[in-house]
Amino acid sequence: MRKRVVITGLGTLSPLGLNVEDTWQALLAGKTGVAPITLFDASENKTKFAAEVKDFDPVALFGRREARRMDRYVQLAMGASLQAVEDAGLIVTDENRDRIGVLIGTGIGGIGTLLEQADVMEKRGASRVSPFLVPMMLADTGPGMVAIKLGVRGPNMSVVTACATGSNSIGEAAEIIRRGSADVMIAGGGEASIIKLAMAGMNTIGALSDRNDEPEKASRPFDKNRNGFVMGEGAGVLILESLEHAQARGANILAELSGYGTSDDAYHISAPAEGGEGAALCMELALENAGLTVDDIGYINAHGTSTTLNDRGETAAIKTVFGERAYQIPVSSTKSMTGHLLGASGALEAVFCTKALQDGILPPTINYETPDPECDLDYVPNEAREVSFKHALSNSFGFGGHNATLIISRFEE
């Protein structure tokens, strides 16, 4: 019998706040986390703004010595993980530590540390490179450090599927529970991508908005005048448990992770397939996995990057899967407020879907001013909306043609 997987804890460090509740309230209010860059001197970059995690103090959280040995991506992932564990009321003991695992992904990992130490070697010589360079730059250091901090010895790994990473991480963590290899998984994504080189690279391929005169209006998914995404950073983490385990320990069940689909476009390294074919397949697989039909979905949290190709392709994919019903389902892109957290985006958006189910409120797509004839769905423009629904579908798509879809449902025994 297929194990049911439920969500019992949430954690986040985001451009909108340093915890779930602050982030959620800012999201519902239509606030933006986008502002001029402070993490580095962006005067030479074409794009001079991003969605930074503001007022984050890793020294206060971990102590100076430990914080210095973690890349910013790991600091963010660790912080969100500790929040989620506390929210779930999960206590690690000798009896359960071997059945608790961690799966936290990242798109570009410790690139900040790598570039910093490359500069050290260039200026001061190879012997001055930090002995912590290698562990600090690895993608799997995030889940490894969480395991060390908490003393959990279950399955532990990192998924890397570009901007689909966060959703893939949660989906694959759920599969680990379903096959009986763990009772609990700490799952999500973290990213510290506001790096001078990374942003320059995205500028050269035309992916980033350069609306420097109005950065707060730069992320405008599905709007006709969109001209690229806004780089973001942060982390989102969920505590997933088998239903039996959650009930046995009296956990507060927030929602159920009912469906997961993943696919690849097999089309182009950075552009989505024509008509969103791979994305459509992914959504269909998630519906099949959940045992649901198109009539069951009450909300779609879109990948919605604010790029011309993505928004058009995702809209087409939703129409392919849902047919005429596509026009009846509210669709919103929270990236309009958080920016695009790359490998952490799907995990953060899974947090939002869980909160939306709990509160019966849909976050808006802000900066939606001019309709695009090729993007003609209900994008919950500019204001949150109260809606009672049972199933939310969340999309994440990444370079390499990676697609991941999660379905998060209201928990019913």
Task: Identify the notable features of this structure and list them briefly.
single chain, 413 residues, alpha/beta, 34% helix, globular
What is the topology, as strand order, of the major beta sheet? 5-4-6-7-1-8-14-13-9-10
Low-confidence stretches: none
User: What form results from the Cα inertia axes?
Assistant: globular
Order of helices and strands: EHEEHHHEHHHEHEHEHEHEHEHHEEEE
Mean pLDDT: 97
Distance between the termini: 16 Å
Please tally the β strands and state the result. 14
So how many helices? 14
Strand content: 15-25%
Walk me through the structure.
The chain is an alpha/beta fold. The two termini are 16 Å apart. Helix 8 packs across helix 14 and helix 11 packs across helix 12. The strands form 3 sheets. It has a 10-stranded mixed beta sheet with strand order 5-4-6-7-1-8-14-13-9-10, sandwiched between helices. It has a two-stranded antiparallel sheet with strand order 2-3. The chain contains 14 helices and 14 strands.
Please give a quick description of this structure:
With about 425 residues, this protein is of the alpha/beta class. The chain has 14 helices and 14 strands.
Which helices and strands occur, and which strands form pairs?
Layout: E1 5-13, H1 20-28, E2 35-36, E3 49-50, H2 58-62, H3 64-68, H4 72-88, E4 100-105, H5 111-124, H6 133-137, H7 141-150, E5 156-157, H8 165-178, E6 184-191, H9 196-204, E7 234-242, H10 243-248, E8 255-264, H11 277-290, E9 299-301, H12 308-322, E10 331-332, H13 335-338, H14 345-359, E11 361-362, E12 385-386, E13 391-398, E14 402-409
Parallel strand pairs: 4-5, 4-6, 9-10, 9-13
Antiparallel strand pairs: 1-7, 1-8, 2-3, 6-7, 8-14, 11-12, 13-14
